[in-house]
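Worked example 3. Consider a protein that binds zinc ion.
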Amino acid sequence: MAYGSLLESGIFDTHAHYDDRRFDEDRYEVLDELFGSGKLYAAVNCGCDVRSSESSLALAQRYERMYCAVGIHPHDAKNADDKAFDAIEAMLAEPKAVALGEIGLDYHYDFSPREVQKEVFERQLCMAERLDVPVVIHDREAHADCVDAVLRHPKVRGVFHSFSGSAETAKILQKAGWYLSFSGPITFKGNVKTVDAALSAYNDRIMVETDCPYLTPVPHRGKRNHSGYISHIIEKIAEIRGESYEFIETLTRENAKRFFGIKE
Ligand SMILES: [Zn+2]
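Given these inputs, the predicted complex is written out as structure tokens:
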């Protein structure tokens, strides 16, 4: 298996929210610097409702190496009407919109009733199948229902973002062709569960992300997160898997390019 051309380097941040209001003061400075430094190969900005999906698409259209996912997050499921689904579907026709997401279930906050979350999730899984686009899954304290839902759609490909399930769940998902993306919490002290899950990840199914401005990795916890801090996540994965930093950076970048269908 070839891991990219020698000319390429840099990290691929598969999940970010640069449209978040915490970047309102300096969004373009941060991104200009990250892309300008050459350390950031590419990033996918993820939408959570129609408005943030539109902002994500606008960001993706501004930067050559920025892409976006558009979709309705479980938090916003209660507000999703037919118009919202149509708007998401229309955005997916844009070349820079490389995935449907983030979609899924969140039983931690329960901002939308669970039955409504499930309905909106199911409808978007059907959309992904019909349009043949990959999905980005948000699963918070809803592992069993999320896994059930995606396995009911064997033709849908996707990633579990900021994977927080067990090694056992990781195995079930990967066997079905799903990807796992790891974020800041893998660096948190005592997070044995996520370390075990990352150890069980297949070489061709592992990706990394910041979920910035959230989930800042150690040693920057408490600060606003950005794609530059992803090096701490790569370092941690390299350490637990006994690989070099360069190997994990290249592996996760090549996996992300293949997953999102990014050619060059
Ligand atoms: Zn997110």
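Take a moment to read the result before moving on. The chain has one domain: 11-260. The beta strands are 11-16, 40-46, 66-70, 97-106, 135-140, 158-160, 179-182, 206-208.
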